[in-house]
Amino acid sequence: xxxHVFYAFHYEADRSRLSDLLQSxxxxxxxxxxxxEWAKLRRGGEFATRRWIEAQLKGRSCTIVLIGKHTAxxxxxxxxxxxxxxLKLGLLGIHxxxxxxxxxxxxxxxxxxxEHPECGLGSLSSKIPVxxxxxxxxxxxxxxxxxxxxxxxxxxxxxxxxxx
Length: 164
Hints:
Elements: E1 5-8, H1 11-22, H2 35-43, H3 45-57, E2 62-67, H4 75-86, E3 90-95, E4 130-131, H5 138-160
Parallel strand pairs: 1-2, 2-3, 3-4
Helix pairs in contact: 3-4
């Protein structure tokens, strides 16, 4: 069964570490933007980017926030989380600091984005699952995430249905 999800993450900082993950086919993701498309979208301003997020959220069952070092401070990630909650999409977070970027570097662990006040989740933030792969080797982190994220997305979508 295809699980249609939206991935939210800090594009500039984490795009290179997510390339393989986003193409893993474990889930049916939102449309990816190339660097040129993303730059054009960003030149259109916040409204254009929010409009793109709105279009990408349609038909999705879950939003997966891929949590890097700076993800918790990104306004567009906050917006995607807020809209996902309003649209009653499942929410979950996955720490990605163990994945290597295009320079072969791993990162520092990022904060739980759902606890950030700008997400506006309040007491719900503690109910949203956030996963931190137990591995340290980048390939093992990747494999752990790919092996589990479909199950996590299903659980997050089911959990959303229990919220008021």
